[in-house]
Specification:
The protein folds into two domains: about 140 residues, HAD superfamily/HAD-like (Rossmann fold, 3-Layer(aba) Sandwich); about 80 residues, Orthogonal Bundle (DNA polymerase, domain 1). The protein is elongated. It has a six-stranded parallel beta sheet with strand order 3-2-1-4-5-6, with helices on both faces. The protein has ten helices and six strands. Helix 8 links the parallel strand 4 and strand 5. The mean pLDDT is about 95. The protein is an alpha/beta fold. It binds magnesium ion (MG). Magnesium ion (MG) binds next to loops.
Length: about 230
């Protein structure tokens, strides 16, 4: 009987994600440059995304609507139908982008699966996350999959309660200090940070906020089996 559960974030923890957004932002910026030169475009797009999060939620579809809204605002509604069409094409490219696994994911999951119950907790668009999990080829490693609209203390408390997991028997692994680490530490669970080289502005937390909690940081998932064996038995 496996009593301990290891939960993984998906985007930028199991597979690459932010890089796809970064390259789309660059294409969007190049398109808008035909209309206006705006060095603050990145921030304007982020402000629109942030404003819309509580309406559209996380994910590519909401991001796309925010690109369209930003383009309309910044070009004073002069953006062409052809370019709106191009933004739609950006979105479709993102949604069918091949799932590129992080290094050592499969070996790590294989090693951990023997002794622990494994789980995915990811936020975002339900359909997109479901197809990414299916396309990743990793689904069979996981006993539980939770796709949620926000990753805060309330969500984690609900998930632990739902699956009858106590906080001391739970570890969360992820790239976002804000979504994967701090809320779990606050509930008395353990968390391990695996930073990715790109972080969406929305997921960045002030250092002093992160310093209030203790958690381990590793550079690759390959370090995980040993770290867990040595610190959580
Ligand atoms: Mg992530």
């Amino acid at each position: 009987m496996k009593t301990k559960t290891i939960a993984f974030d998906a985007d930028d923890t199991l597979w690459i994600n932010e890089t796809i957004f970064t390259s789309t932002r660059a294409k969007f910026k190049a398109m808008i440059a035909k209309y206006v030169s705006d060095e603050f475009l990145d921030d304007k797009l982020y402000q629109t995304e942030k404003r819309n999060l509580c309406i559209f939620g996380y994910g590519i579809k909401g991001f796309t609507l925010s690109m369209i809204e930003t383009a309309l605002e910044i070009t004073k509604e002069q953006i062409s139908g052809r370019d709106i069409h191009q933004i739609m094409a950006f979105a479709k490219d993102m949604l069918v982008h091949p799932v590129e696994l992080m290094a050592e994911v499969e070996n790590t999951l294989k090693a951990l699966k023997e002794n622990y119950r494994l789980m995915v907790i990811t936020k975002g668009d339900l359909f997109d996350q479901e197809t990414k999990i299916a396309r990743s080829g990793l689904a069979d490693y996981f006993d539980l999959i939770e796709i949620v609209s926000e990753k805060d203390e309330r969500t984690y408390r609900h998930i632990l309660h739902k699956h009858n997991i106590s906080a001391e028997n739970f570890i969360m692994i992820g790239n976002s200090v804000k979504s994967d680490i701090l809320p779990v530490c606050a509930l008395g669970g353990k968390a391990i940070h695996v930073p990715f080289h790109e972080t969406w502005t929305h997921e960045i937390v002030p250092e002093e906020q992160a310093a209030a909690y203790f958690y381990d940081t590793i550079t690759s998932l390959a370090e995980l089996p040993d770290l867990i064996k040595n610190t959580w038995s």
